[in-house]
DNA sequence: AACAGTCTCAACCGCCTCGAG
DNA sequence: TCTCGAGGCGGTTGAGACTGT
């Protein structure tokens, strides 16, 4: 049994709205407010279905809607959120005041997808495109700066020259903890290079989430296999790693970002990747964020976006942590990874015991 | 100027969610 | 618990604008 189509009424008009229709709709909503869309056409004297009225209002006529060019700041936010949320246009729109999901969706499909492809990035997975699909790309990290300046000669592809130390911690990578909780290598060296810009709050947060997500993923893997035990380590004291940043240069940032996303959001991909699992390096978001928005003409804008990026992530946490239960999440590692990204601070404040209780 | 190809984005379609009864 | 309908959402379409020849 199929649902009856919404707009099947006799004589209902379709297609582009006229100025006259717009005036009628605006006037009616001004007088009576939004809602009750089913009755609005009749009451407003419109030969449209209610759904069409609602869409016209929410996507076009609403006074607070911002139209026109997207700023580089907005572009960055869209891409960041798309990388973590996918085609959740309404979710993305919530972080871009006065932009509609429809407008963002259109902008993604007509502009941002192309820009990413020009940069050698798969817009679907946010991973570097396969080299043979983008033969003109260069391997020089400095060629990737900003999507504001897409150009066929500034493209990127992963290559053997790419520093493989950008790999985030993997489930097969054994970490120990120092006294302060900082993960250390078996050889005693710090497993997480000190590589953050102190001023970059978004980088710090994202790195924190990355570390937590990876640890959670290990725990979840163990839990699902029935092997979760007291030996499962949860790196703590992550803030200690946010101290130095000298050795954080010249890494291809977007590849790192993509690699992290793949490992945290799509763990099944990581399971199939064994080439550089032993590399001792966490993912460094600060490079991504620094280079991603680099544009000599828009430095202030970029700084704003970094701060806003932090704010929007934090607002996500505060808004959702109280309303989303663990049970709501997919019972998969992928679901948990997404959950972690959504609840960075919540997870950050958990100790391993309470974490284990949540898992069982 | 005329035409063809490409791009943009408003609007539509159909499925999903959720609350009311 | 079930059904129904309003509203929400993401994918897709197509008319008009734009660009190149």
UniProtKB/TrEMBL annotation:
Known partners and oligomeric status: Can form complexes with MYC2, MYC3 or MYC4.
Compartments it resides in: Nucleus
Ranges where the Myb-like domain occurs: 9-61, 62-112
SMART domains found in the cross-reference section: SANT
UniProt keyword annotations, A-Z: DNA-binding, Nucleus, Repeat, Transcription, Transcription regulation
Bias type Low complexity, positions: 157-172
Listed name of the protein: Uncharacterized protein
Gene Ontology MF: a single term: transcription cis-regulatory region binding
Residue span of region Disordered: 123-192
Organism listed in the record: Eruca vesicaria subsp. sativa
Superkingdom of source: Eukaryota
């Amino acid at each position: 049994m199929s649902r009856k189509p919404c707009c099947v009424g006799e004589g209902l008009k379709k297609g582009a709205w006229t100025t006259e229709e717009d005036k009628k709709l605006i006037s009616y909503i001004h007088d009576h407010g939004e809602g009750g869309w089913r009755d609005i056409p009749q009451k407003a004297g419109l030969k449209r279905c209610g759904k069409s009225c609602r869409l016209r209002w929410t996507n076009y006529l609403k006074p607070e809607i911002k139209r026109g060019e997207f700023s580089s700041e907005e572009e960055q936010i869209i891409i960041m959120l798309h990388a973590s949320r996918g085609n959740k246009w309404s979710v993305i729109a919530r972080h871009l005041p006065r932009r509609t999901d429809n407008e963002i969706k259109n902008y993604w499909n007509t502009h941002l997808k192309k820009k990413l492809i020009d940069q050698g990035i798969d817009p679907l997975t946010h991973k570097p495109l396969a080299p043979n699909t983008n033969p003109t790309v260069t391997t020089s990290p400095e060629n990737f700066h900003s999507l504001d300046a897409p150009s066929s000669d500034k493209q990127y592809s992963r290559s053997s020259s790419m520093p493989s130390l950008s790999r985030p911690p993997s489930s097969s990578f054994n970490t120990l903890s120092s006294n302060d909780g900082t993960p250390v290598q078996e050889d005693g060296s710090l497993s997480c290079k000190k590589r953050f810009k102190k001023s970059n709050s978004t980088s710090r947060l994202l790195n924190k989430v990355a570390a937590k997500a990876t640890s959670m993923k290990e725990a979840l893997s163990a839990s699902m296999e029935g092997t979760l035990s007291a030996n499962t380590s949860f790196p703590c004291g992550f803030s200690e790693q946010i101290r130095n940043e000298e050795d954080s240069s010249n890494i291809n940032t977007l590849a790192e970002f993509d690699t992290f996303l793949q490992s945290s959001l799509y763990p099944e991909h990581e399971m199939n990747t064994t080439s550089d699992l032993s590399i001792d390096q966490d993912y460094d978001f600060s490079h991504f964020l620094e280079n991603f928005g680099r544009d000599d003409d828009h430095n202030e804008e970029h700084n704003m976006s970094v701060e806003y990026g932090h704010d929007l992530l934090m607002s996500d946490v505060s808004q959702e942590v109280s309303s989303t239960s663990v049970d709501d999440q997919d019972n998969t590692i992928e679901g948990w990874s997404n959950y972690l990204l959504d609840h960075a601070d919540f997870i950050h404040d958990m100790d391993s015991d309470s974490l284990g209780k949540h898992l069982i």
